[in-house]
Write a structure and sequence with these properties.
Number of helices: 13
Strand content: 25-35%
Bound molecules: adenosine-5'-triphosphate
Largest sheet: 8 strands, mixed
Number of strands: 15
Order of helices and strands: HEEEEHEEHEHEEEEHHHEHEHEHEHHH
CATH topology of the largest domain: Rossmann fold
Radius of gyration: 22 Å
Helix content: 25-40%
Length: 353
Amino acid sequence: MLDTQSILNVLRPVQDPELQKSLVDLNMIRNVAVDDGNVSFTLVLTTPACPLREFIVDDCKKAVQTLPGVETVNVEVTAETPQQKSLPHQQSVAGTKNIIAVSSGKGGVGKSTVAVNIAVALAQTGAKVGLLDADIYGPNAPTMLGLENTEVQVEKNEAGDILQPAFNYGVKMVSMGFLIDPDQPVIWRGPMLNGIIRQFLYQVNWGALDYLVVDMPPGTGDAQLTMAQAVPMAGAVIVTTPQTVSLLDARRGLKMFEQLGVKVLGLVENMSYFIPPDAPERQYDLFGSGGGEKASKELQVPLLGCIPLEIALREGGDKGIPIVMSAPESASAQALTAIAQNIAAKVSVAALA
Ligand SMILES: Nc1ncnc2c1ncn2[C@@H]1O[C@H](COP(=O)(O)OP(=O)(O)OP(=O)(O)O)[C@@H](O)[C@H]1O
């Protein structure tokens, strides 16, 4: 007999491939309805950016279709991103479920480019996303997100001054660039960092966010310390390039996060190879190859993906249209989207562990 229970029974062995647990036991199958031979249910994923969405839907359909009498299977897919756990001394950001730090051992490796495109790629999946640009050395996220010269609005309420984030491409953003004088030397900006980071975490009207992506200053300094101590972090992503020096810096960054008790979600290798615009079928390993993969093995952290060096990626940044928006089919956009999905999947696994 075809009823809710028989559907749940046949779905019980189907597992979430990341969590390796039954979808039914994880309460990811809801609203099961049977109308003659027509079966429908809701699949509630742990992130709207689930990279295995199609695969899981397919597994569910196949399982249900083994039951006699089933004619159609209709799966509605939604997502509920789990909330990151926090330690007793930490103060979470109200409404924000997961904070992801994008970091690099040294400047100029493409950290901001990665942070901005990951934020937009996550928003494209329907996730609620914020971007906190904490880079005092080069606060260039506003330019990359098409929000240059934005003036942040300040509102007063009982908690004090509350900043309204800027908004573009589905991403809410605040930046050091909105508050600091770009002509002021970094040595004077540095001491303000701790205070501004706290303000950007707790005195911004972020609203409800699945992911708050933080573009960290490069290196291993006060910003990392402030973040790790103040808020629960879902994890850190370390951006590197294939050169040995950059990989050595990445190693230092990784050790620092580990010492601060922040999970390193993985490495991103940027500028992995060059794709000439006039011969896109070719690839040139300008900085050597396999460095990121080797480092990920040695350091025992996942390699989240490799992004090619592509002129369109830089142009997108300069024009304020991230490549995942302007040319989603390009090799770098595809790599960035896959990296965003990978990160989201790992964050959910960590939150539910
Ligand atoms: N894969 C890539 N292909 C082409 N250009 C890239 C790529 N990655 C980054 N760039 C360009 O390199 C420059 C530096 O990138 P970005 O500002 O993201 O680096 P960063 O590590 O954040 O630097 P900083 O530490 O100064 O903030 C930018 O002009 C960016 O557009």
